[in-house]
Amino acid sequence: MNYEIDLKKWIKSGDKIFIHGGAATPQYLLRELAKTEGLKGLEFISMSLFGEKVFDKSPGLKDMGEVNALFVSDVTRKAVNNGYGDYIPVFLSDIPDLIRKEILRIDVALIHVSKPDKHGFCSLGVSVDVARAAVQKARVIIAQINKNMPRTHGDGLIHVSQISEMYETNDVIPEVNFGLKNSPESRKIGSLIAELIEDGSTLQTGIGAIPDSVLSNLSNHKNLGIHTELFSDGVLPLIESGVVNNSKKHSHPGKIVTGFLAGSRKLYDFVDDNPMVQVLDIDYVNDPYTIKKNPKVVAINSAIEIDTTGQICADSIGTYQYSGVGGQMDFIRGAALSEGGKPIIALPSITSKGESRIVSFLKPGAGVVTTRAHAHYIVTEFGVAYLFGKNLRQRAAELIRIAHPNHQERLERDAHERFGR
Predict the structure, then answer these.
(1) pLDDT exceeds 70 at position 421
(2) Domains of the chain
(3) Dihedral Cα 412, 420, 388, 342, nearest 10 deg
(4) What confidence tier does 405 reach under pLDDT thresholds 50, 70, 90?
(5) Are the beta carbons of 324 and 67 closer than 8 angstroms?
(6) What pLDDT, on the 0 to 100 scale, is given for residue 176?
(7) Nearest residue to 320 via CA among 127, 84, 87, 45
(8) How far is residue 200's CA from residue 7's CA, in Å, rounded to a whole number?
(9) Mean pLDDT, residues 272-299 taken together
(10) pLDDT tens per residue, range 56-99
(11) How many CA atoms lie within 13 A of 397 on its CB side?
(12) d(CA 181, CA 421)
């Protein structure tokens, strides 16, 4: 294991570099790469990155090449929207296939792993997702070894013999707590969604105020399971109380299945060497065929805006690329195919500026992540709209009913002009 870093030994100008994402973002390696001179024409391929905005600084990574983001986060948002980066629209479940078929070539993988065990195996820790495919296809694997990275069970094991170069670090794993942004609106939305969840359901939830509000309202439920692309601290009290026991799942009964996780140190300690939690390749976790095997799958996802026909924009604000397609459609479709499943889109009725999130027409340039043919349940703090099987006029009436009262009159006027009657 090396302590003096020489990345130019392994990285050449023109290389395509995969960066391990989420809470496993290899901060040390990125800092050191930013100080490396003489590299040009690099392509940085990543999912959602945490930590420093390393692509906004000059001199540094910004001057070495371009970002090619599979999902846009705070770290890459400026690069993607300001001309020194770009974004690939793709379902999360399809990304490993892009890599394995070399449609998206990976030369070098920068990864962040746990310390090797007595057999020489490290773990990809909190983020297996698409990283497994990257390490399988990369010509060079450079690993940041960190005693703070939890060792997780599942698909994330990598033997030291596969790693080209290793550097031992002591970086703190990033912690996130979006629940701090909770509001009366998100609490109301959480309670409405909780009423839709039956005992024995299998849940897909992310991180944020609304998922946390949903989970906080489930203490009287029984025999819930977790099969999700991402989970966080909100699940822990339900595990401790026995509400989440995964006993009714048909796929991986007794186990929590996820592709990655992010939260507090308590969460990271909980998943460390815990066989209850299986962190698996995202092409399996997010495969609608895998998802639908479980009964009563409740998929809870968010949106930026939704038009009155049910088209759901979740990745952009007009032409401004805010996030990505991610796994929303994977789980919306998987839940719809599950016996007794419920695909849910949850969003506050207005933005922080008072603009309606339910709109007559999406902003010019906005991306449709979930089509109106896939929309089922839409929830705001004003109620639940069920769109499946409804025609355009009926959908508009349902959505206007749960829009903010300040905007209902205008929406009704636009709907009358568009649909008549």
Answers:
(1) no
(2) 7-169 (3.40.1080.10), 179-419 (3.40.1080.20)
(3) 0
(4) very high
(5) no
(6) 87
(7) 87
(8) 50
(9) 98
(10) 988 899 999 999 999 999 999 999 999 999 999 999 999 999 99
(11) 8
(12) 41
Sign of the C-alpha dihedral, residues 332, 297, 260, 283?
A: negative
Using an 8 Å Cβ cutoff, are 7 and 33 in contact? yes
Query: pLDDT tens digit string along 11-63?
Result: 999 999 999 999 999 999 999 999 999 999 999 999 999 999 999 988 899 99
| The pLDDT of residue 179 | 56
Residue-averaged pLDDT of the chain: 96
Residue 178: predicted pLDDT: 62
From the list 53, 91, 56, 94, the residue with the least C-alpha distance to 75 is: 53
* Average pLDDT value for residue range 256-280: 97
Q: Please pick, among 32, 229, 305, 398, the residue that the annotation labels catalytic.
A: 229
- Closest by Cα among 81, 25, 70, 23 to 43: 70
Distances (CA, A) of 174 to 25, 89, 261, 262, 277: 9, 26, 11, 8, 20
Bridge-based pairing of strands 316-317 and 320-321 is: antiparallel
Question: Residue for token digits 């990271």?
Answer: 268
Peptide bond between residue 348 and the one before it cis (omega within 30 degrees of 0): no
pLDDT band at 180 (very low <50, low <70, confident <90, very high): low
Give the torsion through C-alpha atoms of 232, 236, 242, 245, to 10 deg: 30
Residue 227, beta-bridge partner list: 257
Instruction: Examine the pLDDT at 321 and tell me if it is beyond 90.
Output: yes
CA 291 to chain centre: 16
Active-site annotation holds for 168:
no
Longest CA pairwise span in the chain (Å): 73
Using alpha carbons, select from 74, 103, 102 the residue that is nearest to residue 321: 74
Q: Is the pTM of this model over 0.85?
A: yes
* Residue 93 identity: S
Amino acid at site 241: S
